[in-house]
Amino acid sequence: MKFKDAFPALCLLLLIISEFFLFSANRQKSNALAQWHNAQQQLTDLQAQLAIITNSIAANESADVTRLRAENQDLPRLRAQILQLQADNSKLIAQLGNARETAGQRQEQLDEIAVQEEQAAADQQAQAQEVDQILANQRTTCINNLRLIYAAKQAWALDKSKTDTDVPTEQDLLPYLKGGVFPVCPSGGIYTIGAVGQLPTCSISGHVLPPQ
Question: What is the pTM of this model?
Fold first, then answer.
């Protein structure tokens, strides 16, 4: 009787325990489902982030590829430009060398011209001095000739009893001149004998007999 009386209570206890375990299992299941949903959401989010990162990487790689392709396309042009610049530089260096050589040659020519000009100036000065000396010698010779003419006039006047106003000719003075030859101005001047009392003159300026 006691067992029979206790059986319903035992069944009720077992039912309560089973309900408790069922509730606990359901609760654990709900928690597990919630965690699974969270995990799924995280996975989805991670996949979305991965997709964004992948797309970004792909875009960057595409941009880098495009840039590299553009650079590779410009590379031959840049190489051509470098070669052209090198050729221009070599040409300029050659032109500079030629210019320096030409400048050196011109400097040598200028130096030679300067030496020639200095020599020409020295020669011209020497020639001028020589001309001055020749002119001085001619002037001295002409003045000496005028002295001879004056002395011949005086001798003619004494010998012929002439006065200071008488004017002799060249023929009159020849006997009183050395060698019987009437003197000639070395500069091509023309002598004027004049009267006995006058000094003979020469047509060349500066050929003047000093007062006797």
Answer: 0.48
